Amino acid sequence: MNETATADDWVRELDARQRAMLAEMGVKVWTPAPARVPLAEPAAAAPAPVQPPARPPQAREPAARAPIVPTTPATAAPVSIAPPAPARADIAQLDWPALRDAVAGCRACSLCESRRNTVFGVGHTEADWMIVGEAPGEQEDRQGQPFVGPAGQLLDAMLRACGRDRQADDARGVFIANVLKCRPPANRNPAPEEVMQCEPFLSRQVALVKPRLIIAMGRFAVQSLLKTTEPIGRLRGRVHRYEGVPVIVTYHPAYLLRTPVDKAKAWADLCLAMDLERAG
Ligand code: URA
């Protein structure tokens, strides 16, 4: 990373596409004098994309896997027809398909009772960037995809401003996941127990994607990854680590929709991420 790069340097380096995207994000760009260096395109030599395991879009969750309790003999042990949920330690060994199945069948906390769909995550499974959000909202719960509501539209604009795209399966790709894979009812905050139960899934996703950097968006992503209750304002602007992977902290897109004045700070955070990436 160019340690001495300033915000002005970034503003000078914006190309037309990025300016348009910043406008879409609602960030007004003040143009300093005068030289403007075009921003380099993302590296051409991308790792061969690996398609996510082919799966149909998540359908409604199967009904609760109730054990079948035989009526006779009365003393017989209950027989379960469901495969046992992997133990927390075993999740760390799962491959993509098994991890996806484990999330889809998870009943480790009460969120499974109210969800329509689990929301596993989406994107390039070998992406350089991983985005971690909080939890599915109503739209995400309906569609089984992360960040598809208004906050997701802003996230997509932010990513495009960085030359990234959730649908790209090349060097522009990202993998997007949440701390929680199920929607908390009425979009309430995740409970500590829910975060704790879901943590092995996110940890395994990070281990499988092997991103070069993680962008933690919002309080719950930050708390879950960094194990700190420090406010985002005090964590921004420097590089943290999660299981060895550099982590950039920024505001959640839903917060930015409510507090557009902080979009410029979020842009500065994305610039830090791009800096870090360029430093290799
Ligand atoms: N907010 C999140 O944190 N994640 C989503 O998937 C949607 C909204």
UniProtKB/TrEMBL annotation:
<dbReference type="InterPro" id="IPR051536">
    <property type="entry name" value="UDG_Type-4/5"/>
</dbReference>
<dbReference type="Pfam" id="PF03167">
    <property type="entry name" value="UDG"/>
</dbReference>
<dbReference type="InterPro" id="IPR005273">
    <property type="entry name" value="Ura-DNA_glyco_family4"/>
</dbReference>
<dbReference type="InterPro" id="IPR036895">
    <property type="entry name" value="Uracil-DNA_glycosylase-like_sf"/>
</dbReference>
<feature type="domain" description="Uracil-DNA glycosylase-like">
    <location>
        <begin position="120"/>
        <end position="271"/>
    </location>
</feature>
<dbReference type="GO" id="GO:0046872">
    <property type="term" value="F:metal ion binding"/>
</dbReference>
<keyword id="KW-0808">Transferase</keyword>
<keyword id="KW-0378">Hydrolase</keyword>
<keyword id="KW-0227">DNA damage</keyword>
<keyword id="KW-0479">Metal-binding</keyword>
<keyword id="KW-0234">DNA repair</keyword>
<keyword id="KW-0004">4Fe-4S</keyword>
<feature type="region of interest" description="Disordered">
    <location>
        <begin position="44"/>
        <end position="63"/>
    </location>
</feature>
<keyword id="KW-0548">Nucleotidyltransferase</keyword>
<dbReference type="GO" id="GO:0004844">
    <property type="term" value="F:uracil DNA N-glycosylase activity"/>
</dbReference>
<dbReference type="GO" id="GO:0051539">
    <property type="term" value="F:4 iron, 4 sulfur cluster binding"/>
</dbReference>
<dbReference type="GO" id="GO:0016779">
    <property type="term" value="F:nucleotidyltransferase activity"/>
</dbReference>
<keyword id="KW-0411">Iron-sulfur</keyword>
<dbReference type="GO" id="GO:0006281">
    <property type="term" value="P:DNA repair"/>
</dbReference>
<dbReference type="InterPro" id="IPR005122">
    <property type="entry name" value="Uracil-DNA_glycosylase-like"/>
</dbReference>
<keyword id="KW-0408">Iron</keyword>
<comment type="similarity">
    <text>Belongs to the uracil-DNA glycosylase (UDG) superfamily. Type 4 (UDGa) family.</text>
</comment>
<protein>
    <recommendedName>
        <fullName>Type-4 uracil-DNA glycosylase</fullName>
        <ecNumber>3.2.2.27</ecNumber>
    </recommendedName>
</protein>
